[in-house]
Please model this.
Amino acid sequence: MSNPKNIPTRVLPGFMELLPADQIIFERMKDSIRHSYEEFGFIPLETPIIERAEVLLSKAGGETERQIYQFTRGDNQLALRFDLTVPLARYVSEHFNELAFPFRRYHIGTVYRGERPQKGRFREFYQCDIDIVGHNELSLVNDAEILSVIYTTLKNLGYQDFTVRINNRKVLSGLMASLGIQERSTEVLREIDKLEKIGPGNVRADLAEIGIPPASIDRILQFASIRGQPAEVIAGLRRLELGNDLYETGVAELEEVVRLVEYLGVPPHNFTIDLSIARGLDYYTGTVYETILNDHPEFGSVCSGGRYDNLAGQFTEQHLPGVGISMGLTRMFDQLREAGVIQPGPSTVAQVLVIPMLTDLKIPLEVATRLRSAGVRTEVYFSEAKMKKKMAYASKLGIPYVVIIGEDEVAAGVFSLKDLRTGEQVQIGFDQLLQTVIEHANS
Amino acid sequence: MSNPKNIPTRVLPGFMELLPADQIIFERMKDSIRHSYEEFGFIPLETPIIERAEVLLSKAGGETERQIYQFTRGDNQLALRFDLTVPLARYVSEHFNELAFPFRRYHIGTVYRGERPQKGRFREFYQCDIDIVGHNELSLVNDAEILSVIYTTLKNLGYQDFTVRINNRKVLSGLMASLGIQERSTEVLREIDKLEKIGPGNVRADLAEIGIPPASIDRILQFASIRGQPAEVIAGLRRLELGNDLYETGVAELEEVVRLVEYLGVPPHNFTIDLSIARGLDYYTGTVYETILNDHPEFGSVCSGGRYDNLAGQFTEQHLPGVGISMGLTRMFDQLREAGVIQPGPSTVAQVLVIPMLTDLKIPLEVATRLRSAGVRTEVYFSEAKMKKKMAYASKLGIPYVVIIGEDEVAAGVFSLKDLRTGEQVQIGFDQLLQTVIEHANS
Model:
């Protein structure tokens, strides 16, 4: 494409820009997620994309901090949000007196991270978050409900074969405390995480190398080998008899969440207890969640989160425990498309293309307006062109129905309705036409 | 509110942040606009909020350029989009070969302008744009359709009494050319615009002061005094007999658009020809639109746009004429709220709050899941609290129905359904409960 001023028109690296067919699917996914969240009564929330840098930096650190887009405007240090949780913390702190608790909100919006661009990593991406924030206390039942939200959301998106993996940070922390190795938790958890890949022999060697005593290694490997149905895992955890209160609380919480999740109708094959899940973020303190599409474990977790003790300690002295999850929609969409799970459909939302074959547009325009009033998404082809070109336009976009209106049709009081998917063409009156389109066009 | 680190939690000046009740209305308006746009077959489009600075600066100038948020990242000069039109121009140039023309897209998204904060001006605000972009040609019928989109969109938003004012830049340019004062157009148009406020005597004096010859002033005032129904305005324009081709073309286009708009079913009281409308942007070349809510002319135009000769001359040598409009949703929402037209409704989307009065949550959770599966937005109150506090929570949020489930209800196989709007409470079975809620809860 020639370009008069040589300005690059390609989107910046690390930014996703979709063609219409993909965009339409992306929008449908956003809608589906939103409706799933609203089914549970979560309230929509939006916060600005630009925040004071000190607000965002209050929680960021390390890698994230380097990735934040920051800039100066007048006297203000500004930044683009890198997640939806820090803005939620600021929002709840600011509007504390105006909100009812537990505060249940969802937020579907873009966040910004100046990461090194690489496959599957985006600098602008959608997060679809829900959080339930309590004041001073928040019942454990919410932890079960969040799992039900994940299940419902993925099911409504059309997925059947996925597993929500849960764990409880109290179990992990209690285990470490009972062995007196709390300060080594991160390293130990990293080793546990490698178990499936490298096997218990290698994990034993690695743990010994970082100085964990043999008796503790036995306990850790015993812990990490607990597998099975939730009831079996719970029984296995109990059998360890670690005699640590935090651990016991964690086990009891896991057991209770599993029981409640069954009441909520989540099928047993869609969730499991996975003791290797810890989640990177420091602030999770109870239930943690990850979600795997079983046909695509290589995607990693498509929906993750957990229970935290205090949402907004940096902004308020109110004690705000919560539980929440985030779905990385942009990344998941990209992965599903790459894997061929998402196949592009039509490049339009139109259900009907009206093609006038008359000089006087009165009837075609009236028909278009009547179709629209009846809820049919209708476009009219206005350009002068050969019939073939007009049909090609409809085909290229994937509009299912074409209505041809010429002198003959007007004289006979009928319309030619062509189904472009079958090639079938009929002459019918308006009411029949409307009925056919409503019943058979893509919804 | 005490704040441990003294980080300001107020949103930045010039940014809108809504409480739930307002946010819910805002979301509903966004949805309504989107559905109206889709009724006409417009395709959703999203582009990144961050663009190369040179892309955005290719069209910006003067005031706008100073308002652009710009920053450097690595070697890149980046900027936040200040409208949705320049990104559209880049998108169409980049993806020209992959798109079908006419390309009809809508884009509802935020844009960023670092304006001095003042009442009714925002630094982050939603624009709701539609554009129809042709390749080499674009039928005038599209200009009429755009007016029909404006009408439908406002009507679907619940407004009845509004006027879409149209004009045609060719009429104005032709008038100026016929008087030999093309290069004074801007000043002259500014004077015409003041006519209603200061009267013809003062306009005459002002025009004389800037050096317009008396004969030309007569013509201009004669032009500007043309009022009435569209047919009368057209006749009045013809009577001027300016003998300028551009002018005649403009008059013919206005006449044709008016005729087609009637075919499209736009009621005559919802549009008018207003010869004082010129629109600031330089690139409009034909039909221009402004829209006034008649009860609130002080809002200014809530939906504006026009026909342009070439969308993307800075990015491509393809000739891309188009016509489009933009609705400034954030500003309009703010104005409607200030004027009391928008009254906050419920602070939730939930239709039912289930209140368990049992230790065993099996039945309450099952009921919640069944209600959700039937499409009822349902929340369960999990916190330990007195009944009064639970009811207060439902009332504060504005949840219309409460379902109370205690030992008695479970034993009798019924549920207590309370309508919080009427205070009425009944004991009914699940099917009746579901039917009542679906029929009478806010949708």
In short: The two ends of chain A are 36 Å apart (CA to CA). Chain A touches chain B through 107 residues (CB under 8 Å).
